[in-house]
Design a protein that fits this description.
It is a single chain. This protein is an all-alpha fold. Helices cover about 75% and strands about 0% of the residues. The chain has a domain of about 190 residues. It has 16 helices and 4 strands. Strand 2 and strand 3 form a beta hairpin. Helix 7 runs antiparallel to helix 8.
Length: about 350
């Protein structure tokens, strides 16, 4: 009976050895230089190389000037002073473009703020009143731009283009199409004051750039700006008030224009409705050259600063070689087109390149 019972039991299979877990090597991580983190550094190095090329061109074309160390130092300060006003405007423009917008009215805002702060009534309040007026006017016009874009749902191009025309017209109305002379010695002294041999205007530029860099790279505001510019819908679903943030971006741009208005008024010791002409072109071009995407979502303050310095160096190079302003504008236009084309090629293939690289290393 026991034999039958044992035979009815199913035969036990031999113990199965535990299969060794297949070891899959993790894909090798891309180095910082080859990954996304190194893109900005490589771009900035390319901009520095461009500056070196421009200096070499200056040495070859005017060796008599570049052979004098004192002239070289003075010319460097001249370039930085030339870049200071546009550089401040470019910081605000960089934030707007990273956030997915565009501001064509920055030059007109500078003119309006400059004219408003140099009226006889405003100058009667002294330097503090003039500075406060310029900053308030720039901030207010920026807020209006932001409201038109975010809550009015106007295309940024149309909204800021309309503001460009309106602000220029208002500036001409306030000044009666005349040049308003600044009689305040403190305001006028901003452009002529040197600290440790460096113009005060350069220190103002450095301060604005430093504040912009911290705001973009070390604060929640900066991260939200990149998120809104990269994908507004995803930013909204993540809890970001996209409309309010857009208003703040244009307000920041207007505030930078107010600062630039004080600086430009100090340089010219006057203000008029035609001042800061084509500053929007210079600011947009500098931001693009610096690596800011026109579609939004990417950009650096340092890159934009280098872009401003490059354009100022080109302007200086044309001046010392007695070349016309028309030729300079044509060169600027060509640089802008080339920069946008390079951006499209690089940005369109960057993600695919990284994906192929990771697949290969796996």
């Amino acid at each position: 009976m026991s034999d039958v019972r044992e035979s009815s039991l199913p035969a036990q299979s031999p113990p199965v050895e535990r299969a060794e877990t297949a070891k899959v090597d993790a894909p090798a991580k891309l180095s910082w230089w080859r990954g996304d983190g190194g893109e900005g550094a490589k771009r900035n190095l390319g901009l520095l190389a461009t500056l070196v090329v421009l200096v070499v061109i200056g040495i070859l074309t005017r060796p008599d000037l570049y052979g004098d160390p004192n002239w070289v130092w003075g010319n460097t300060l001249t370039i930085l002073k030339l870049a200071s006003v546009v550089g401040v405007v470019t910081v605000g423009m960089t934030f707007v473009i990273i956030g997915g917008g565009i501001d064509l009215s920055v030059g007109a805002i500078v003119a309006l703020a400059g004219v408003w702060c140099t009226t006889v009534a405003t100058q009667s309040y002294g330097a503090g009143g003039m500075i406060f007026t310029a900053l308030t006017v720039g901030l207010a016009v920026g807020v209006v731009n932001g409201l038109l874009v975010s809550y009015g749902r106007l295309v940024p191009f149309i909204a800021t283009l309309a503001m460009l025309v309106a602000a220029r017209g208002l500036a001409a109305e306030i000044s009666d199409k005349q040049t308003q002379v600044s009689g305040n010695t403190f305001i006028n002294g901003i452009a002529s004051t040197n600290v440790l041999g460096i113009p005060l205007l350069v220190y103002i530029l450095v301060a604005v750039v430093a504040a912009g860099w911290v705001l973009l790279n070390r604060t929640t505001f900066g991260r939200r700006t990149v998120a809104v510019g990269g994908n507004p819908e995803a930013a909204r679903l993540a809890g970001i008030n996209v409309r309010r943030h857009t208003v703040l971006l244009y307000a920041l741009s207007g505030l930078c224009c107010g600062i630039a208005a004080v600086m430009l008024t100090a340089q010219a010791t006057s203000a008029q409705a035609a001042m800061a002409n084509l500053y929007e072109l210079d600011a947009i071009a500098a931001a693009i050259i610096g690596g800011t995407l026109l579609s939004g979502g990417r950009g650096t303050i340092i890159g934009s600063l280098l872009g401003v310095i490059i354009f100022s160096t080109i302007t200086n190079l044309f001046a010392i070689n007695n070349l016309s302003a028309e030729a300079q504008n044509m060169v600027k236009g060509g640089i802008i087109v080339a920069a946008v084309l390079v951006q499209q090629v690089q940005f369109g293939s960057l993600t695919q390149f990284l994906a192929r690289n990771r697949a290969t290393t796996t």
